[in-house]
């Protein structure tokens, strides 16, 4: 009786230990599954986070070329054969043409005649005040309305009488965009849609 009682007590204690170990094993399995899920979800999030990060775009280094300036139209057109874009503008009393050739900007500039001219008249001759003309080329322009580059402009004038036999002529030049585009298209062999009013600069 004493033996059986002690044996049962030991068996009960062993059952308790086995049950506790089984329960502990289940808990360890559950924790292990949670850790695996957590590890896999963290890895996925890291991957998603990395994927969502924008790629860093390295700033492209623009090679700056010098701007070449011409005063002679013939030299300008000779050096600008093969241009891909032409632009033109009038700023103050200057007419500018810009061309883009192999990444280089070429520029032509021509001074326009002043827009005010003082003229004096006497019985034997008519004289133009020298300060009214920049150069002889400006006088040539007044005669035939053609710039040194060959562009023909229409000139309009109005006259103001200062005193007897002294006059001021106010001049204006008509830069018709279509006419300028037509002229530049022929000079450079470029389609008119590649010629714009504006400037090309780096």
Estimate what percentage of residues fall within beta strands. 25-35%
Tally of individual helices: 4
Taken from the alpha-carbon principal axes, the silhouette is rod-shaped
User: Could you say which structural class the secondary elements and strand pairing correspond to?
Assistant: alpha+beta
SSE string, helices as H and strands as E: HEHEEEEEHEEHE
Overall mean pLDDT: 78
In the sheet with the most strands, the strands line up as: 1-4-3-2-9
Computed CA radius of gyration, to the nearest angstrom: 45 Å
Give the fraction of residues assigned to helices: 25-40%
**Biggest sheet statistics:** 5 strands, mixed
Q: Compute the number of strand runs.
A: 9
What distance separates the N and C termini? 110 Å
Question: Which ranges are low-confidence, i.e. pLDDT below 50, for 5 or more consecutive residues?
Answer: none
Textual characterization of the structure:
The protein has 202 residues and is an alpha+beta fold. The protein has a domain at 67-197. It is built from 4 helices and 9 strands; from the N terminus they run αβαβββββαββαβ. The strands form 2 sheets. The protein has a 5-stranded mixed β-sheet with strand order 1-4-3-2-9, covered by helices on one side. The chain starts with a helix and ends in a 5-residue tail after the last strand. The mean pLDDT is 78.
């Amino acid at each position: 009786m004493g033996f059986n009682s002690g044996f049962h007590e030991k068996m009960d204690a062993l059952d308790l230990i086995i049950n506790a170990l089984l329960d502990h094993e289940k808990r360890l399995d559950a924790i292990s599954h949670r850790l695996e899920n957590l590890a896999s979800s963290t890895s996925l999030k890291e991957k998603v986070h990395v994927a969502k990060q924008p790629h860093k775009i390295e700033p492209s280094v623009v090679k700056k070329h010098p701007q070449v300036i011409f005063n002679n139209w013939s030299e300008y057109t000779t050096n600008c054969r093969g241009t891909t874009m032409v632009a033109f503008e009038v700023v103050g009393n200057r007419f500018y043409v810009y061309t883009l050739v192999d990444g280089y900007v070429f520029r032509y500039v021509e001074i326009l005649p002043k827009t005010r001219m003082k003229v004096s008249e006497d019985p034997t001759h008519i004289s133009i005040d020298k300060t009214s003309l920049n150069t002889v080329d400006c006088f040539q322009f007044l005669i035939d309305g053609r710039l040194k580059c060959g562009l023909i402009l229409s000139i309009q004038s109005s006259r103001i009488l200062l005193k007897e036999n002294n006059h001021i002529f106010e001049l204006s030049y008509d830069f018709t965009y279509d006419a300028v585009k037509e002229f530049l298209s022929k000079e450079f062999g470029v389609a008119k849609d590649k010629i714009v009013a504006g400037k090309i600069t780096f």
